[in-house]
DNA sequence: TCGGTTTATGGAATCGATACCACATTTATC
DNA sequence: GATAAATGTGGTATCGATTCCATAAACCGA
């Protein structure tokens, strides 16, 4: 492996000079510069970024913590982040918590010890330990999707999105609307979306039966199971619509309903949230909400970059969303 | 930021001893060990991995080069890689070439200078510069999806998969089979799959018309456009089936055909490759080929890890696949 | 021609860890 | 009880870059 010293020796200069050439900094004569550049090319020398990072306390890497690596949401967000940071020659170090809370905290420490210059977290929950860990890490930090106290956060407007979907169902004459959600440890997806639904139902004085409320785990299969429970448990009082907090669970629910011979949306309407590719191509096309995940990633990256350059006050940004009306309602 | 020196001072020992505790290496007395561990916990000290990596020449990071970050294939592969490497406490450094050939090479150099311990490349093309760059990087290296000379590669059996799909169509009495492919700069997807199709047609003495062969760019939209061209240009001689080399293009083609009032598979049958989630939930469900991408990622990671521990001869592994017969043929 | 910039280069310290060697003390072995 | 082996700890060099300071030649206006 060639190092800066090798180059220096070969060029008959000090390594300081080589460093100056490499970083375009300070005075270097034309002929020395050319000589060095030529050697760099010939030897294929690339500076050791560990050494550089050790000295400069900057790594050029930003850490991204994902709840699950292979989801459409995650990959869209990452794509947005990447688009922004790669322009400034930053790399992304990816970690995957597999929905494990402790790992979130573990990774924050890990990323810190890897000298990342900043962290973006796709959060799935809020807890004291987590905010504590973020505080002690003392790094530029952005959270996407959850409103973490003391942390600049990019938020989806879960409450209003859910309310809008519910309202839209109501405007289609639905009065008996069921709900497939997720656990409330996830304050955004599990909490706010449910509130949006419940409040809207209440405002419209529509009764809700316990059997209509089911809780899944984000997966298509769990959507299927929840729909089954809803149908089985409320035989005498079937809902005419089901609001699912994610597209995938909505797809699962549709699958079950179709198997059972229900026609969508005639017998039962369905809507989801997420605007997955899937939602567009199922039949009937799924009514859903576009959260502009990629844009959230871009925004997060921009904020992070800004925060890295200059300490900024913590802020909250609520993203807009778009209701996509299709055929399932 | 606390360093190993701070801990050493506080514990009244040398930093050598602290290092020994941290790495569980060499002799340390119980009481010193406890004292140090306690301090580590109290201060929240995490060792600088840049320093460590500078000294040890190992970074605990493996680089992954993707053609496009937000695709189902990529995220499945990454998920597989992650599953394996995270068990051994490696992290993934992700890079995204955005289908840009030069970036592939640039990233190899970049990852090298970041001291990654190995690289996994989801290759989309083969060229001299690329194999050259891999050679000079001189790092443990695995390619997925393309047979790179001199590089351990995990390959999908594109030729036989395509032949199988074509044969299956033929066994359903199709004689006029069209083809939607991609450019042959991608030897696997563009080259081998096409060969599989062409050879199978030839073996069965089935004629192919030029208008039946179209080339897209992996996107759903391009599938749509290709289908349009096929239908428009061969009005007098419509195919009864279209084989698409990717699911997404198949979905696009289906969309166009549906718009035009064709019934699938009665009027025209369709099949893809990739076993995307999408393929399962479109109507009619798409016949496709499962390439076990996640498994490919796992395998790649295992091979890479093995290669990192011990120099291994370069090998080629051809993965198996599974034809998934659904309703679109 | 003289003092002051500007240009050009090198030397030494430093970042935070690990590795190797040296040395002292205990413990085991015959 | 002498010698060998195991245990415990510290000192110093080192990894490959950057940074700061020193030095010197070239240039320049008065």
Q: Profile the largest sheet of chain A.
A: 6 strands, parallel
Radius of gyration of chain A: 26 Å
The run of helices and strands of chain A is: HHHHEHEHEHEEHEHEHEHEHEHEE
Biggest chain contact: A-B, 44 and 44 residues
Organism (chains A, B): Jeotgalibacillus proteolyticus
Pfam family, one (chains A, B): LacI
GO molecular function (chains A, B): DNA-binding transcription factor activity; transcription cis-regulatory region binding
Keywords (chains A, B): DNA-binding, Transcription, Transcription regulation
How is this structure best described in words?
Two copies of one chain form a homodimer. With 329 residues, chain A is of the alpha/beta class. Chain A has three domains: 44 residues, 434 Repressor (Amino-terminal Domain), CATH 1.10.260; 126 residues, 3-Layer(aba) Sandwich (Rossmann fold), CATH 3.40.50; 133 residues, Response regulator (Rossmann fold, 3-Layer(aba) Sandwich). Helix content of chain A is 48%, strand content 16%. Chain A contains 13 helices and twelve strands. In chain A, strands 2-1-3-4-5-11 form a six-stranded parallel beta sheet, with helices on both faces. In chain A, strand 6, helix 9 and strand 7 form a beta-alpha-beta unit. In chain A, helix 1 packs across helix 2. The longest helix of chain A is centred in the middle third of the chain and has 17 residues. The termini of chain A are far apart. In chain A, 49% of the residues are buried. The mean pLDDT of chain A is 95. Chains A and B meet through helix 4, helix 5, strand 2, helix 6 and helix 12 of A and helix 4, helix 5, strand 2, helix 6 and helix 12 of B. Strand 2 of chain A pairs antiparallel with strand 2 of chain B. The structure holds a DNA duplex (30 and 30 nucleotides).
